[in-house]
Amino acid sequence: MSAQRILVVEDEKDMSLGLRDILESEGYEVVTAGTGREGLHLAGKKTPDCIILDLMLPDVSGYEVCEQIRQKKLTTPILMLTARAQEYDKIRGFKVGADDYLTKPFGIGELLARVMALLRRHGGYGVADLDEVRVGSSVVDARHFIVRRDGVDHSMSHYEVELFKLLYSRVNQPVGRDEILLKIWGATESFPTNRTVDNFIVKLRKKIEEDYRNPRHILTVYGVGYKLSP
Ligand code: CA
């Protein structure tokens, strides 16, 4: 199982380093950004599982970063940090898509508890309901469980859709078999195996690829897993 990744967007160096230390010692992978713009960029590029976002940033405010993250259709849970001196507008925060907030100074225990709660509640792949996605000559309509190819609709199963969404959330990057198993089957089946993943990959290929024996979009990354390359 790979570590869950947390993006920390905070310009104050001490706070940023402190958060990194705390989170890394709990086994999380940490990515940091010192400006709102960088945070926004990394929110898309690094596909974090959770974002800790400071309200006061040197370029754009945390509200704005939050809003723009949601406009990109990323559903990554966001924990907003505010200073006691600041008037944090809770309603505005939630309206722009923050999931929770924490007022500085805070205790380590409380921070970790909130992060864990967000990760547990979310448990998704950072992708909102997908609009239609073009993959080669196919169009995947995950919302309606359909792949359209050569004018024909092929229906998708629940697991095929979940698998596609997971691969899509990390487009052009390999997703490990173990992670796929854990995120898609982990909570539901007692004894799924890597074979389960491989079988569903074949099913997806048959629907999406022109020639599923020579896949060009749902690719095997040897020794790792699979990646989607639309
Ligand atoms: Ca700050």
What can you tell me about this protein's structure?
This protein is of the alpha/beta class and 230 residues long. It has two domains: 5-121, Rossmann fold (3-Layer(aba) Sandwich); 127-228, Arc Repressor Mutant, subunit A (Orthogonal Bundle), CATH 1.10.10. Helices cover 39% and strands 22% of the residues. It is built from eight helices and twelve strands. The protein has helices at 13-25, 36-45, 62-71, 90-95, 108-122, 158-169, 177-185, 194-208; strands spanning 5-9, 29-33, 50-54, 78-83, 100-104, 133-135, 138-141, 146-149, 152-155, 175-176, 218-221, 225-228. It has a five-stranded parallel beta sheet with strand order 2-1-3-4-5, with helices on both faces. It has a four-stranded antiparallel beta sheet with strand order 6-7-8-9, with no helix packed on it. Helix 2 runs parallel beside helix 3 (62-71) and helix 6 (158-169) crosses helix 7. Calcium ion binds next to loops.
Task: Write a concise synopsis of the structure shown.
The protein is α/β, with parallel strands linked by helices and 230 residues long. Helices cover 39% and strands 22% of the residues. The chain has two domains: 5-121, Rossmann fold; 127-228, Orthogonal Bundle (Arc Repressor Mutant, subunit A), CATH 1.10.10.10.
